[in-house]
Write a structure and sequence with these properties.
The protein is 29% helix and 24% strand. By secondary structure, it is an alpha/beta fold.
Length: 405
């Protein structure tokens, strides 16, 4: 009977914390779980502990807007996110869990001549990296999104778009649950409601963490995968990160009949729109300009996002808003992630994701696991090292979509 009960659970009941682990991962979101998963799968490292201060997936992984794409502005970013999308394509089958991944296509609209020039430039960067991305005109856009208003007399007439067929949406909580089950079956431990309040150091090395109840957990390696809280955790280890934290808001409407089967991003109106499998229209915008840890929504966001959405989809005028939410985003100076080693030995970071983190979860887990398992930094994440800010080798993704996603 006990064996049957265990099979029905997504992962095992919480075990007692041990005194020491080979790897302690701070953060039970998609990046922390993916790292634990690939440590076991690729390197046979299973003496791993994932610590989460709330429930699993309660942070950025549970508050994002499910969009996946790889049509970024820099060659480094495009290659990195393309590798992640490719991993996502096989992840559901690998985990034996339906992640509801729909590669329905991604359209970044252009409303001016200048925006069209930017789209052409991005398309060339993408194509040089082997990524399916091209500029299309109004007629093809109408074929892909026939419900969208395309009037030439609009306030922001659509002149063209960057079309990225591999882009799409995936169910964020399914990714978290599938990875958590994979981590558990791989042999690592998952410990929700265990808040880290300190990172211990000795002779310039991270040696463990302390928890809010005073428990000490020793570690051969500590990984900081805490998104908006990454700078707070890093400071516990004596590492200063060039990170600012902002909130990002989104909302969904009541379920409606299918109208849209591609992701729409407007680069000038600062709005992105998709329709979920349940029929809800999911609508978001840019990060808020002020730095804060207060995850509270604003009426101004709902007003502006609704106004721009109705310019593109006037038929949603009477649709009721079902719920809204906000999450934390960790922004780096060049809007690219910071990955890998720090000046504190054995203290690794995955931070600076802004609004792009969920898209990168599989490749972050795979490359950070490779760094731990082999002791060398993978080529794919080398450009995103923390030391680039000291060597003036920035990887600017500022304006990669002119909107958060």
């Amino acid at each position: 009977m006990l064996d049957l009960f265990r099979k029905r659970r997504m992962w095992r009941p919480t075990a007692e914390l041990k005194d020491n682990y080979d790897v302690v991962i701070i953060g039970g979101g998609s990046h922390g779980l993916a790292t634990a998963y690939y440590l076991a799968r690729d390197h046979g490292i299973t003496d791993v502990c994932v610590l989460e201060k709330a429930y699993i997936g309660s942070g950025a992984a549970g508050r994002n807007t499910t969009i996946l794409r790889s049509n970024y502005k820099t060659s480094e970013g495009a290659r990195f996110y393309d590798a992640s999308v490719k991993l996502y394509e096989g992840l559901g089958a690998e985990l034996n869990y339906n992640l509801l991944f729909s590669q329905e296509g991604h359209l970044t609209l252009a409303h001016t001549d200048r925006a069209m020039f930017v789209m052409v430039e991005r398309a060339e960067v993408n194509r040089l990296a082997g990524i399916d991305s091209r500029v299309i005109g109004p007629e093809e856009i109408e074929g892909l999104a026939p419900a969208m208003a395309m009037s030439r007399d609009a306030v922001h007439p659509v002149m063209g778009a960057l079309y990225h067929p591999p882009g799409g949406i995936i169910r964020h909580d399914a990714v978290v649950w599938g990875l958590a089950r994979g981590v558990d079956r791989g042999g690592a431990e998952i410990h929700p409601y265990r808040e880290v309040t300190g990172v211990e150091r000795s002779n310039g090395r991270a040696t463990g963490v302390t928890l809010s109840d005073g428990t000490r957990v020793g570690a051969g390696m500590v990984v900081n995968a805490t998104a908006g809280w990454s700078s707070t955790i890093a400071s516990m280890a004596g590492v200063e990160l060039p990170i600012t934290t902002h909130i990002l808001q989104a909302f969904v409407t009541e379920p409606l009949k299918p109208l849209l089967d591609v992701v729409i991003v407007s680069s000038q109106m600062h709005v992105y729109i998709s329709q979920t499998d349940r029929g809800e229209f999911l609508i978001g915008a840019e990060i808020e300009p002020w730095t804060t840890y207060r995850q509270q929504g604003t009426l101004n966001f709902i007003q502006e996002a609704s106004r721009h959405t109705l310019e593109l989809f006037p038929q949603l005028e009477r649709a009721r808003i079902l719920r809204s939410w906000a999450g934390l985003c960790d922004i780096s100076p060049d809007f690219s992630p910071i990955l890998g080693d720090t000046e504190v030995e054995n203290f690794l970071i995955s931070t600076g994701w802004g609004t792009y983190g969920f898209k990168a979860a599989p490749i972050v887990g795979k490359t950070i696991a490779e760094r731990i398992g082999t002791g060398t930094t993978p080529d794919l994440i080398e450009p995103f090292a923390l030391e680039r800010f000291y060597r003036d080798r920035l990887v600017s993704e500022l304006g990669a979509a002119a909107v958060s996603h």
